Amino acid sequence: MERRARFHFDNIYGDVLRMVGPYRLWQVGDLYCEPGYTVPPHNQAVHELTYVVSGAGKVFSGGVLWDAGPSDLFFSRPGEPHAIYADAAQPLRYFYLGFSFAEPLQDAVKPIRTQLDSLENACVRDAGILAEAFIRLFGEITPGDAFTDVLLESAMQEVIATACRLFARSESRGYRGAERRDVDEKLVYDLTHYLDAHATDIGVLSALPEVFGYSYTHLAQKFSAAMGESLSRYHNRRRFERAQEYLRRGESITRVAELVGYQSIHAFSRAFHRSVGVTPQEYRQRFNP
User: Fold this and answer.
1) For residue 201, how many C-alpha atoms fall within 13 Å in the half-sphere facing its CB?
2) N or C: which end of the chain has fewer CB within 10 A?
3) Per-residue DSSP letters for 209-259?
4) What separation in angstroms does the CA of 3 have from each of 18, 88, 201?
5) What is the Rg, in whole angstroms, of the alpha carbon atoms belonging to the chain?
6) Burial class (CB in 10 A: 0-12, 13-18, 19+), 181
7) What is the C-alpha to C-alpha distance for residues 82 and 108, in angstroms, rounded to an integer?
8) Hey, CA dihedral for 223, 5, 241, 278, is it positive or negative?
9) How far apart are alpha carbons 134 and 137 in whole angstroms?
10) Cα dihedral sign for 184, 190, 195, 196?
């Protein structure tokens, strides 16, 4: 079965300039991820706050692969790798806010910029106070009346400033998180990124020891411990997610079988059915009736 992400609310501004007081607003929303869904590894373009509303999963932020649960808050800087993984058995819902600072930097937000630039930990637990602040922000995104812009700036300031206060308090208590900032976490991130990039390569697993310089057993143990899923299962799931993507684009079943490394269309159909729960033909008909 295909793993999906559903937006309760989403606004992406990208190249559209939306200034909100001393900030530029890039993206804000509320995302529900089905069990097993992955927000693929990517380099963060702007500052981003991620607040977990419910469920479970993992968040790669600040160079650490963190366990994620309700009321957890994460921060990602521009240029840093970032990824989100819903738990294999539970959905994951989170709020997020992507923003940058207007130039020239206004005096009112200089302490915020300094705080975010100097953070040593990208996670704060028990940040439930942010939930209502995010909801107020969502309520002011759509233009309504003459007061919308003022209230939007106030709501965005509340989310960002409150997050900074939570991080400051966390660090003043000497919080360093339950996870270790060590090579294992970076290794798991690199493994995940590599498997995503080579999802259709049937021989990718056997090549991992040569690529990463560790035995397959070592890599498999580290990956499974961090992700709660074996290397082979993760690769197989990503492989058939790619097959589903090709089918939705309208590629023929024969062509899709070739693209994901099957020489026999019958072998591909059987494997697809085991992984997805329907045949490739049935899956195609859902999107190309």
Assistant:
1) 11
2) C
3) HHHHSS-HHHHHHHHHHHHSS-HHHHHHHHHHHHHHHHHHTT--HHHHHHH
4) 32, 10, 21
5) 21
6) middle
7) 28
8) positive
9) 5
10) positive
Strand, helix or coil for residue 14: coil
Residue 255: count of CB within 10 angstroms of its CB:
12
pLDDT tens over the chain, length 289 residues: 455 666 666 666 655 678 899 999 999 989 988 898 999 898 999 999 999 999 999 999 988 999 999 999 999 999 999 999 999 888 899 999 999 999 899 998 999 999 899 888 899 988 988 998 998 898 888 777 888 889 999 999 999 999 999 998 876 554 444 444 456 777 888 888 888 888 888 889 999 998 888 899 999 998 888 888 899 998 998 899 889 888 888 889 999 999 998 889 999 999 999 988 899 998 888 766 5
Interatomic CA distance for residues 87 and 33, integer angstroms: 9
CB-neighbour burial class of residue 46 (10 A; exposed 0-12, middle 13-18, buried 19+): middle
Q: Which long-range contacts (CB under 8 A, 24 or more apart) does 160-165 make?
A: 160/23, 160/49, 160/97, 160/99, 160/112, 161/112, 162/129, 162/130, 162/133, 163/49, 163/73, 163/75, 163/124, 163/127, 163/130, 164/111, 164/112, 164/115, 164/116
Cβ burial of 108 (10 Å; 0-12, 13-18, 19+) is exposed
Question: For the purposes of burial, counting CB atoms within 10 Å of the CB of 190, is it exposed (0-12), middle (13-18) or buried (19 or more)?
Answer: middle
Classify residue 262 by its DSSP letter. -
Q: Where are the beta strands (DSSP E) in 125-227?
A: none
